[in-house]
Amino acid sequence: MLEAQTQSKLKSTNKTGQQDTREYLAFCDFLEKTSGITLGENKAYLVKNRLRPIMEAHNVESLSAATEKIKSGRDPKLKLEIIDAMTTNETSWFRDQYPFEYLHDELLPKLASNRMGTPRIWSAACSYGHEAYSISMIIEEYIAKNPGSFPGGIQIIGTDISSRVVASATKAEFDYLSISRGLSEERKKKYFIQTREDYYKLNEKIKSRVRFQNFNLLESYASLGKFDIIFCRNVLIYFSAENKTEIMNKFSQSLKKDGVFILGASETVTNHCTAFEMVKCPRGVVYKPV
Ligand SMILES: C[S@@+](CC[C@H](N)C(=O)[O-])C[C@H]1O[C@@H](n2cnc3c(N)ncnc32)[C@H](O)[C@@H]1O
Questions:
Q1: Which of 44, 62, 86 is where one domain is finished?
Q2: Is residue 93 a part of any domain in this protein?
Q3: Of all residues in the chain, what percent carry a pLDDT higher than 70?
Q4: Three-state SS at 213
Q5: Is 162 in the pocket of ligand 1 (CB under 6 A)?
Q6: Does residue 245 share a domain with residue 174?
Q7: Does the beta carbon of 228 lie inside 6 Å of ligand 1?
Q8: Together in a domain, 209 and 82
Q9: Same domain, 9 and 61
Q10: Ligand 1 centroid to 171 CA: how many Å?
Q11: Are residues 73 and 142 in the same domain?
Q12: Residue 120 near residue 157, CB atoms below 8 Å
């Protein structure tokens, strides 16, 4: 059964394109319900192109046949592959810079003076792991300047809905183009060794602080435990207002007392969630639960 919004979009489409539009809109409904990702109205061509190889491999002829097959539960791999293909995994090292400066200058000194158990940091929607590993590099550099700061270590958890990017992040091997995006020459030399032509392996110490797992932000967060800092950047822009509110509320409940929530530079909790207050930092903002 298509939703009211979908029905009204159909009315505005001419007869020739109605079947295609119906199929596409039903697929959009399905994708939003399973992953939170909302697609624009004019992306049908792009979606079909992206999904064509997967549909051929799974022997399905149309978007509606793919949606039906997934709903029937007959092909769980098809669902994973389609969600993988529909995610946008754009990322870079030290993206936006200021969250990492703030982590180094404000958050780590506070956590170090606290000494209440092992600090935990969550990189939610971590893509290929650049954010989680940038956090680990900052911790490494902080400890080098402040020896003995975190005797019990710091745990970083990176999660993403896409099993493809989680597998790649866990491997911690990057091509030259990928290590060039946001990393200084100094950090490249310090944290990577070339393993084969055009491939660079991340230093074991930086890698060992981070654990990755497959996780859908629409699920319950109870199994993950509480965190001192949550980074969730550049993913909620793809979500509906309703899902943004639900997810931000769940993040506020997943933070320890005095925990900090960090969004992308173009994102805000304003108009979405009242569970946080804004804290200005030198070159941006972060959020604390009220
Ligand atoms: C544009 S990347 C952002 C990566 C990183 N946070 C950054 O700012 O560079 C967005 C990531 O969100 C992930 N994603 C999309 N929907 C998700 C969901 N429902 N649960 C978890 N991750 C999701 C995608 O797979 C993708 O890797």
A1: 86
A2: no
A3: 94
A4: strand
A5: yes
A6: yes
A7: no
A8: no
A9: yes
A10: 18
A11: no
A12: yes
Among 16-25, 184-193, 211-220, 235-244, the least confident range = 16-25
Beta bridge partners of 193: 201
User: What is the dihedral angle through the alpha carbons of 181, 183, 185, 191, rounded to the nearest 10 degrees?
Assistant: -120
Statement to judge: residues 118 and 63 lie in one domain? no
Q: With cut-offs at 50, 70 and 90, classify the pLDDT of residue 13.
A: low
| Ligand 1: centre distance to CA 207 (Å) | 20
Q: Reduced to 3 states, what is the DSSP secondary structure of residue 124?
A: strand
Q: Output the domain CATH number for residue 118.
A: 3.40.50.150
Cα gap 208→175, rounded to integer Å: 20
Q: Which domain, by its residues, includes 61? A: 4-86
How far does the centroid of ligand 1 lie from the alpha carbon of residue 7, in Å? 29
Residue 88 CB–ligand 1 contact under 6 Å:
yes
Beta bridge partners of 196: 199
Sorted by sequence, the CB contacts under 8 Å of residue 261 that are 6+ apart come out as 229, 230, 232, 248, 251, 252, 255, 269, 276, 286, 287, 288, 289
Note the Cα 288 to chain centre separation in Å. Answer: 20
Structure tokens at 48: 């079909």
- Pick from 153, 105, 101, 164: nearest CA to 129: 164
Residue 234 CB–ligand 1 contact under 6 Å: yes
* Residue nearest to ligand 1 atom 27, measured at CA: 127
Nearest CA to ligand 1 atom 10: 235
